[in-house]
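Study this one:
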Amino acid sequence: MDALRGVPPPLPPPSALAPVDAPQRIQALDVVRGFALLGIFLMNIEWFTRPIQQMGSGIDPAATGADHAAAWFVYVFVQGKFWVLFSLLFGMGFAVMSTRGGHGPRFRRVYARRCAALLGFGLLHAALLWSADILHAYAIAGVLLLAFGEIDNRVRLWMGAGLYAGIALLVVLGGLLLSALPEDAREGFAEMAVETDAAATAAARVFAEGGYWQATAQRISDFLTVSAQGLLMLLPLALAVFMIGAWLVRGGRMDDVQAQRGWFARLALWMLPLGGVFVALSLAVGTRFDGMREAGPMMLATGLMMLGSLPLALGYLALLVLGLGTPALARPLSWLAPAGRMALTHYLLQSLVASTLFYGYGFGLWGQVGRAGQVLLVLVVFVLQVAASHWWLARFRFGPMEWLWRWIGYGVRPPMRIA
């Protein structure tokens, strides 16, 4: 309860670089991580029943009525914001670990092994469950973050914010330039659109009707084309957000959240309206795009949405922290903490559930569940995940994947059962 009231739990000395139990964790981070899991699933589930070749094209034109309303809500309030929130937490976790264990050779070895393990998990996830994996990008960006571990904290903030804003502005500029091209100069994009449409149709047929190994081959193909191309932009974006998350922890903002309530209130007051302005501008450009045939407006809307996603994610973080300091909200929010402690397990489990439900080798529901039904399904699965987390962590110290991750990272098998 001390952590919920904002009193930081006692941390082990810097030399004690080892897995920590629940009393030594910063519970506010686990609560935010649990909340982020919900948003990640709301965002990802659409792409288990829609080909990833259509990513970036906005709301599915087939969505009408309640499905359109659900799609619009996720597009405006969730998409792009929750992966940023999740990425902030990764950067915070790096800062917590480096603070507890020092930034010496042993920490770097352990952290490098953890990143290598995460890369392996991500590649297996992409091949066996879902091609739009983000863990591999986190692993690579995590290694890059290691190179900036000892820079001044203010420099870390400005580097992170500047890198993120710079990439988003480049996307905006690219969208403006493409929109200004004459019609004949855009013929090449129309040809690319035909190829993309054909690839999306072929992928949809495989996932809807194919067996497991056919789907696996398609996932690998999608990962090596669509996801690999997106990695060029995702890597620097992830690194930028990691740095901002590390800045929050290194600046002491997350150690005693109760004492920082005023600062988090100001953060929410500044970030939520700022993010809202950029999201509104993006919506004004459009919410549905005909792929590469409308590459200019699509890029412009994407860049503006990116500019809004970071401040909104920071605003969401601030609201959650403020909620933890409010008696009426602290207890229900604290129920998310166990799910946050098992974030890696639950992220992969969400993919297992969704791929089994929607792909042809499972229940074959590809294209049969609208966006509203997907949202309802996410809520049901997430409630079950939270309940399962409470049951599991009453008996075990770590989630299954978290235990394996620590074993690989520290080189010593940690005890699993609670004594």
Summary: The radius of gyration is 21 Å. The chain has 15 helices and no strands. The CA atoms of residues 66 and 397 lie 42 Å apart.
